[in-house]
């Protein structure tokens, strides 16, 4: 550290210069994050110093966390779901598997997950000492439910399905997984970190949530399609009491027990998440999602006109292509199978899609 502090103006010109080194979202087509909605940014600023790790000091902010859980629980067709605001999909997935592991005491626990699952499950299995059993995908990159049964045994503590896969934007056959989970008496965790804020707002959403009796828990991230500030995730459970198995004593806090993974937790991004849901409502979210899906379809159509076929028709706003050319100045990503991947987040407007297609056309010309 400096012996003597630096003048504020110098400090901020230094910080601004660093910030200018960041890429603007304008040309980023690879991200599942997006600039926060203006009401999210405004709410965030009001709650900067709030800490949900000691909720008795911030009862107003804690009530907003409860409201977030109730709103997302209702969206998932279970207003009384248990839950808390996590730092994102990774923490939600770790905590869901912790609960599942606690619920079934076996010597060599394993989890059965699709090959498409997010790498947060690799971290979760490492931390929790779980064997990760990876189920292959079908031709459309969905978990092959025919194969699932063969991977489950008496040591299986959880089955996982994904709603809106990170790389191909497809939804696993959750209804079938829920049947298998009930039949084999296994905890079913649904990773809807991305798709949880998309699928419910589609014209004809496939059921994937607590309406299916076999679904035990759901990850859903406001800091992705919920346009909140970072970090804002949420883990929901069918039974609120399930969190008790994670409790540790916190004798000197305003609460005596805590089930969260993090101790100090931001209230600002939780207020931001609530702000977006309240401001937009179902109608507003439907409009945002309809726009993203429309842009996804237009992008696919445009790319196919250039001779770059889609890898799969996605269920959410993630488009993938057989295409090895990249127009300069754009950020796209490449899946593990070598497909070009573009996430049509709210900042990827129709204009952005058209500009991208013009640039793609130019490299071909
Ligand atoms: N589950 C799914 C289905 C996800 O897609 C992700 C993240 C997670 C869990 C983990 O969520 P957190 O990152 O919130 O812990 N998916 C994105 C990805 O890995 C995250 C991301 C977002 C990466 C923006 C890059 C980026 O620029 O691609």
Automatic annotation (TrEMBL):
Belongs to the group II decarboxylase family. MfnA subfamily. Belongs to the group II decarboxylase family. Sphingosine-1-phosphate lyase subfamily. GO terms for biological process: carboxylic acid metabolic process; coenzyme A biosynthetic process; methanofuran biosynthetic process. Coiled coil: none annotated. GO terms for molecular function: aspartate 1-decarboxylase activity; pyridoxal phosphate binding; tyrosine decarboxylase activity. Pathway: Cofactor biosynthesis; coenzyme A biosynthesis; Cofactor biosynthesis; methanofuran biosynthesis. HAMAP family: MfnA_decarbox. Catalyzes the decarboxylation of L-tyrosine to produce tyramine for methanofuran biosynthesis. Can also catalyze the decarboxylation of L-aspartate to produce beta-alanine for coenzyme A (CoA) biosynthesis. Its cofactor is pyridoxal 5'-phosphate. Keywords: Decarboxylase, Lyase, Pyridoxal phosphate. This is Probable L-tyrosine/L-aspartate decarboxylase. InterPro entries: GrpII_AminoAcid_Decarb, MfnA, PyrdxlP-dep_de-COase, PyrdxlP-dep_Trfase, PyrdxlP-dep_Trfase_major, PyrdxlP-dep_Trfase_small, Pyridoxal-P_BS.
